[in-house]
Amino acid sequence: MFAGWGGELATCRKFAPTVRNYTASKLMSQVGLRVGEACKLDLADIKWDLGRFGKLHVRHGKGARGSGPRERMVPLINGADRTLRWFVEDVWGQFDDDHTRPGAPLFPSERRCADGSSGRVCDDALRGGLKVAAMAHLPEWGDKLTPHVLRHFCASELYLGGLELIAIQEVLGHSWIATTMRYVHVQRARVEDAWVAGQQRAAKRLEGLLR
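Below the sequence we write its predicted structure tokens.
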């Protein structure tokens, strides 16, 4: 879906809003942001100097059992650093001309505030943009592909890529590892593949002992 969506960006009628929706959805699939978290991010929440790839300071993460906002630092892994740099450097300026303005939203709205600056996008706009893209490029998922599904996709892809469950829990901002486990969906052959790989490793160790 993202390949098809990305391919039409250069010719779409509303370039900046479409790219904004694409970028936010891409981040949800890469680092598991919730749609509400994405809407509340500021430009200043991107910490390019932290870690190997930079990090996102999610200040309004969902707390467990109504405990209130729970902050976390999300590493810009899985290509999220490239996604954000492109959007901030090449597209964001079409919404606003002041990157240094305190409270400048990472994902602006087309609407203007009283002082002429861009407002903050609402989650309905991001949900709507994702639905339109899904209907166009993944029609069998058109009514089912939501931001929450992208979080599940992110968890599964990170796990299949070798990331440990504890690390995925940290990325997604879950309070309990059991919650993270429900987000990871693997192919039915995953268990068999892991067993075969384990047998191969054991055979190699045995070979070393017999030499």
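The chain has one domain: 2-210.
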